Amino acid sequence: MYNLPHFKADNQREIFAFMQAHPFATLCCVDAHGCPVATHIPVLFEEREGVLYLQAHIMRKQDHAIALATNPNVLVIFSANHAYVSASWYAKQNVASTWNYKAVHAKGIVRFLNDEGLYNMLVKLTNHFEGSVDSPAAVKYMSDEYVRDNMKAIVGFEIELTSINNVFKQSQNKDAETKKAIIKQLGSDSLVK
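RE: above sequence
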C-alpha cells in the first residue's frame, strides 16, 4: 500500500467510518498453491473487547472457500470514489498527473462459524442492509426449509482484524490554487482535502 504520512486519515474513527460507509469489500487470500484468490462480499462490523471483527459469508466449494480452509490469513480491501487528476489543472506545470482515492487494507484471521453462528449472521446481515427488522425480505419471514437449503450452499465466517492501513490521497500535498482547480474540474470536493 502507498505509505506516505500526508496521505493518511486523521484518526481511527475516520478510517472506521469509511469502512462502514463502504461495506462491499474485496476479500483476498492465497490458496494452497500460493495463488491469489479474491472475491467481493458485503461485511458486517462488530467490536468486542476493543477488537474489530468483520462478519460475512461466501459460497462453499468455490476457490475462496477452499483457500480459506487452507490459509486463514486474509486481506480485506475497502475502496470508494476515485478520480484521475490531470497535471494540466495544476497551478505549477511540468509535473506528473496523479490519481486521488481512498482505500483501507484490513488484515486478519478467518474463523468459520457453526450453523447457529451462520444463521445469526444472516439475520444481522439482512436486517442491516434492509434497514429494518420488519422488512418483507427479513430472514424471519423466509420458510425454514428455504433458509436451511440455502445455508447448505454457504459458509459463514468472521475475521479478527490484526492490522488496518489506509491511503486517503486527496491532493493534500497541493497548494490552495491547485486544490480549487481540481475541485472545479471534478465537480466535487469529496476527493480533495
